[in-house]
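By way of example, we now present a protein record of this kind:
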Amino acid sequence: MMRKYYLLVLMFAMMLFGSSSGGPDDFGYTLLTENVDLSRSITSLGCCDLLSWVMANGEENQAWITVQTHVNILAVCALLDMACIIIPEDIEVDEEIITKANEKEIPLFKTSDSAYQIFTRFYEAGLR
């Protein structure tokens, strides 16, 4: 069962992050950062905008959905060694934040999808 789960997560990560046959926008997500590690498997998904809650409940290798776009999201992501940050609903991200994410090597994605739609895509790809 665990092997099947790992393969489904790996399959989703390939769809999200791209593979040799696709790019990082296979789900319509836009990768805002450059030269970041896109080979990590996503083991869970979380959505929260209260940073203290995320610090207490977030997980390593988690994809984090948040509408926050300030520099503190990068600190929380790095602290917990999360897989990536996904900004929903085409919310604008300042160039300063993208530059800092590049420095910290944090994959930062943007999408027109709502948080619900992002969760649905993960679920359909097999993440439970």
Observations:
- The CA atoms of residues 55 and 76 lie 6 Å apart.
